[in-house]
Amino acid sequence: MYPIGSKVMIVNVYRQSKLDERYSGPFTIKGYTKNKSYILTDRLDNLLSRDVPTQQIKLIQSSAASQNVVKDKHYEVQAIIAHRGGPINYEYLVHWLGYNDEADHTWQTASDFDSSLHIELYWQRRNGNNTKAAPLAKTVNHTIRKKANRDKHSNKNAHIITRSQRLLEAKQQK
Predict the structure, then answer these.
(1) Which PROSITE patterns does this entry report, sorted A to Z (predicted)?
(2) Residue 35 is part of a domain; what is its CATH number?
(3) Which of 81, 116, 123, 167 is the 20 to 30 A CA-CA neighbour of 149?
(4) CB burial class (10 A; 0-12, 13-18, 19+) of residue 62?
(5) Is residue 57 part of a domain?
(6) The overall pTM is greater than 0.85
(7) Cα gap 108→94, rounded to integer Å
(8) Measured in whole angstroms, how far is the alpha carbon of residue 15 from the centre of its chain?
């Protein structure tokens, strides 16, 4: 069940063609009915004229202030975008998960991170294949392809033909 206060979209039950909108809304969940349908309100806080079952609802924003905020003001890193400073005191420009505005990007030192995973990923992206990991193979599917050899195929076919001829000769001799 979605929490009360969440923003949702609902399936457009009046849709006539594929050009019509699939969802209408947004709406806010105000409550539940005894059969577990949702009571919704629009932007002006007017009640929707019908109750909406769960399968017709698509959650677009939870009622929680932020799903990314953990106890003691910890936030989840989506990616590190850039760095500045020298090797001893690098600072990293962090894109926080759920905060897509560039004004929300912040500069953080390596000691501010709980894990060095995102820093390592950043440097791997930045340096390309100059990392300690094994280099990628030369082909797209990561295998080394052999060049085609027509002689091998023709010899194989010749072998099949001679084998079938021997079998026919053996049958004729019996």
Answers:
(1) CHROMO_2
(2) 2.30.30
(3) 167
(4) middle
(5) yes
(6) no
(7) 7
(8) 29
